[in-house]
Design a protein that fits this description.
Blueprint (H helix, E strand, L loop, with lengths): L3 E9 L2 E9 L5 E6 L5 H9 L3 H8 L8 H12 L6 E8 L6 E12 L2 E8 L8 H15 L4 E7 L3 H7 L4 E8 L2 E11 L5 E2 L1
Parallel strand pairs: 6-7, 8-10
Antiparallel strand pairs: 1-2, 2-3, 3-4, 4-5, 5-6, 7-9, 8-9
Helix pairs in contact: 1-3
Protein backbone atom coordinates (compact mmCIF):
# COMPACT_ATOMS: atom_id res chain seq x y z
CA UNK A 1 0.00 0.00 0.00
CA UNK A 2 1.44 3.35 -1.05
CA UNK A 3 1.38 6.42 1.20
CA UNK A 4 -1.50 8.86 0.76
CA UNK A 5 -0.29 12.05 -0.90
CA UNK A 6 -1.40 15.56 -1.70
CA UNK A 7 0.52 18.35 -3.38
CA UNK A 8 0.71 22.02 -2.58
CA UNK A 9 2.85 24.68 -4.15
CA UNK A 10 4.94 27.21 -2.32
CA UNK A 11 6.63 30.32 -3.67
CA UNK A 12 10.24 30.97 -2.74
CA UNK A 13 12.73 33.39 -4.31
CA UNK A 14 10.23 34.07 -7.13
CA UNK A 15 10.19 30.37 -8.02
CA UNK A 16 7.38 27.87 -7.70
CA UNK A 17 8.40 25.01 -5.42
CA UNK A 18 6.34 21.86 -5.13
CA UNK A 19 5.74 20.60 -1.62
CA UNK A 20 4.26 17.13 -1.34
CA UNK A 21 2.51 16.03 1.83
CA UNK A 22 2.07 12.33 2.53
CA UNK A 23 0.71 10.07 5.22
CA UNK A 24 2.90 7.01 5.66
CA UNK A 25 1.77 3.46 6.25
CA UNK A 26 2.14 3.96 10.01
CA UNK A 27 0.16 7.21 9.96
CA UNK A 28 3.05 9.67 10.15
CA UNK A 29 2.56 13.00 8.38
CA UNK A 30 5.47 13.86 6.09
CA UNK A 31 6.43 16.79 3.91
CA UNK A 32 8.63 16.31 0.85
CA UNK A 33 10.15 19.27 -0.98
CA UNK A 34 13.19 20.10 -3.13
CA UNK A 35 16.56 20.33 -1.38
CA UNK A 36 17.48 23.95 -0.64
CA UNK A 37 20.87 25.57 0.11
CA UNK A 38 19.97 25.85 3.80
CA UNK A 39 19.44 22.07 4.07
CA UNK A 40 23.08 21.17 4.78
CA UNK A 41 22.37 20.68 8.50
CA UNK A 42 19.34 18.53 7.67
CA UNK A 43 21.44 16.31 5.41
CA UNK A 44 24.04 15.89 8.16
CA UNK A 45 21.27 14.96 10.60
CA UNK A 46 19.93 12.25 8.28
CA UNK A 47 23.44 10.82 7.87
CA UNK A 48 23.96 10.86 11.66
CA UNK A 49 20.83 8.75 12.14
CA UNK A 50 21.89 6.06 9.67
CA UNK A 51 23.51 2.88 10.98
CA UNK A 52 26.80 1.54 9.66
CA UNK A 53 24.84 -1.01 7.62
CA UNK A 54 22.56 1.63 6.08
CA UNK A 55 25.54 3.81 5.23
CA UNK A 56 27.29 0.87 3.60
CA UNK A 57 24.24 0.08 1.49
CA UNK A 58 24.03 3.72 0.40
CA UNK A 59 27.72 4.27 -0.38
CA UNK A 60 28.80 0.64 -1.06
CA UNK A 61 31.74 1.16 1.28
CA UNK A 62 32.33 1.91 4.94
CA UNK A 63 32.12 5.65 5.67
CA UNK A 64 32.14 5.49 9.47
CA UNK A 65 35.71 6.82 9.49
CA UNK A 66 34.71 10.05 7.72
CA UNK A 67 35.09 13.01 10.08
CA UNK A 68 32.43 15.64 10.82
CA UNK A 69 34.20 18.34 8.79
CA UNK A 70 34.15 16.19 5.66
CA UNK A 71 30.52 15.22 6.27
CA UNK A 72 29.55 18.89 6.60
CA UNK A 73 31.46 19.86 3.45
CA UNK A 74 29.73 17.12 1.47
CA UNK A 75 26.33 18.17 2.82
CA UNK A 76 26.96 21.77 1.80
CA UNK A 77 28.04 20.66 -1.66
CA UNK A 78 24.86 18.61 -2.10
CA UNK A 79 22.62 21.38 -0.76
CA UNK A 80 24.15 23.89 -3.17
CA UNK A 81 24.20 21.71 -6.28
CA UNK A 82 23.15 23.75 -9.35
CA UNK A 83 19.96 22.37 -10.94
CA UNK A 84 21.72 21.68 -14.22
CA UNK A 85 24.16 19.41 -12.33
CA UNK A 86 21.66 17.58 -10.15
CA UNK A 87 18.51 17.85 -8.10
CA UNK A 88 17.11 16.28 -4.98
CA UNK A 89 14.16 16.08 -2.61
CA UNK A 90 14.10 15.82 1.17
CA UNK A 91 11.44 14.47 3.54
CA UNK A 92 10.47 15.81 6.97
CA UNK A 93 8.33 14.27 9.70
CA UNK A 94 5.69 16.87 10.62
CA UNK A 95 4.19 14.81 13.45
CA UNK A 96 6.48 16.23 16.14
CA UNK A 97 6.51 19.83 17.38
CA UNK A 98 9.53 20.54 15.15
CA UNK A 99 10.05 19.10 11.67
CA UNK A 100 12.50 16.19 11.66
CA UNK A 101 14.54 15.46 8.50
CA UNK A 102 14.15 11.76 7.74
CA UNK A 103 15.20 11.00 4.16
CA UNK A 104 16.60 12.29 0.91
CA UNK A 105 16.71 11.26 -2.74
CA UNK A 106 18.83 12.94 -5.38
CA UNK A 107 20.32 12.56 -8.81
CA UNK A 108 23.50 13.86 -10.42
CA UNK A 109 23.77 14.26 -14.18
CA UNK A 110 26.59 12.11 -15.61
CA UNK A 111 25.92 12.77 -19.31
CA UNK A 112 23.15 14.44 -21.30
CA UNK A 113 19.86 12.72 -20.46
CA UNK A 114 21.45 10.33 -17.94
CA UNK A 115 21.78 10.79 -14.18
CA UNK A 116 22.90 8.70 -11.21
CA UNK A 117 20.37 8.33 -8.41
CA UNK A 118 20.69 7.78 -4.66
CA UNK A 119 18.18 7.37 -1.82
CA UNK A 120 18.77 7.51 1.95
CA UNK A 121 16.28 7.13 4.81
CA UNK A 122 17.32 7.20 8.46
CA UNK A 123 17.00 3.85 10.20
CA UNK A 124 14.08 4.64 12.51
CA UNK A 125 11.92 5.71 9.55
CA UNK A 126 12.63 2.86 7.15
CA UNK A 127 9.98 0.42 5.84
CA UNK A 128 7.24 3.07 6.07
CA UNK A 129 6.94 4.05 2.39
CA UNK A 130 9.12 7.16 2.69
CA UNK A 131 11.78 5.93 0.26
CA UNK A 132 9.07 5.12 -2.27
CA UNK A 133 7.53 8.59 -1.98
CA UNK A 134 10.95 10.26 -2.26
CA UNK A 135 11.89 8.30 -5.36
CA UNK A 136 8.52 8.92 -7.01
CA UNK A 137 8.91 12.68 -6.58
CA UNK A 138 12.54 12.53 -7.71
CA UNK A 139 11.69 10.65 -10.91
CA UNK A 140 8.98 13.19 -11.72
CA UNK A 141 11.54 15.96 -11.19
CA UNK A 142 14.00 14.15 -13.44
CA UNK A 143 11.44 13.72 -16.21
CA UNK A 144 10.56 17.42 -16.09
CA UNK A 145 14.29 18.21 -16.38
CA UNK A 146 14.67 16.08 -19.52
CA UNK A 147 16.40 13.10 -17.90
CA UNK A 148 15.72 9.87 -19.82
CA UNK A 149 17.61 7.37 -17.67
CA UNK A 150 18.46 7.09 -13.99
CA UNK A 151 21.29 4.71 -13.18
CA UNK A 152 22.56 3.25 -9.93
CA UNK A 153 24.52 0.47 -8.25
CA UNK A 154 22.69 -1.61 -5.64
CA UNK A 155 23.56 -4.55 -3.43
CA UNK A 156 21.61 -7.62 -4.49
CA UNK A 157 20.67 -8.31 -0.86
CA UNK A 158 19.25 -4.82 -0.31
CA UNK A 159 15.63 -5.94 -0.42
CA UNK A 160 14.28 -2.58 0.76
CA UNK A 161 15.52 -0.63 -2.26
CA UNK A 162 14.32 -3.34 -4.66
CA UNK A 163 10.83 -2.98 -3.17
CA UNK A 164 11.03 0.78 -3.63
CA UNK A 165 12.12 0.44 -7.26
CA UNK A 166 9.31 -1.99 -8.01
CA UNK A 167 6.77 0.71 -7.10
CA UNK A 168 8.01 3.00 -9.88
CA UNK A 169 5.87 3.25 -13.04
CA UNK A 170 8.92 2.96 -15.30
CA UNK A 171 10.71 0.04 -16.94
CA UNK A 172 13.82 -1.03 -15.04
CA UNK A 173 16.76 -2.98 -16.41
CA UNK A 174 19.02 -4.88 -14.05
CA UNK A 175 22.56 -6.05 -14.78
CA UNK A 176 23.86 -8.36 -11.99
CA UNK A 177 27.60 -8.30 -11.29
CA UNK A 178 28.46 -10.58 -8.41
CA UNK A 179 27.01 -9.22 -5.18
CA UNK A 180 25.78 -5.99 -6.79
CA UNK A 181 23.61 -4.99 -9.72
CA UNK A 182 23.73 -2.03 -12.05
CA UNK A 183 20.23 -0.71 -12.67
CA UNK A 184 18.77 1.59 -15.29
CA UNK A 185 15.39 3.25 -14.73
CA UNK A 186 13.99 4.01 -18.19
CA UNK A 187 12.04 7.22 -17.62
CA UNK A 188 10.78 7.20 -21.21
CA UNK A 189 9.38 3.66 -20.97
CA UNK A 190 6.33 2.77 -18.85
CA UNK A 191 6.55 -0.35 -16.74
CA UNK A 192 4.49 -3.25 -18.05
CA UNK A 193 6.55 -6.11 -16.65
CA UNK A 194 8.69 -6.79 -13.60
CA UNK A 195 12.31 -5.62 -13.44
CA UNK A 196 14.16 -7.03 -16.44
CA UNK A 197 17.40 -8.83 -15.63
CA UNK A 198 20.05 -9.00 -18.34
Amino acid sequence: MLPMTRCVRGVMMNMIMEIRQITTRSGRRMKIRPILPQDAANLVDIFAHMSSESRYRRFLQSVDHVGPTRVWQEAERIANTPPEVGRGVIAFDMTAAEEVPVGVARYVVVEPGVAELAVSVRDDYQSDGIGTALLQMLTETAVSAGILKLIGTIQNENEAIWRVLNHLPYAIRRYPQGTISEIVVMLDQPRNVATKTE
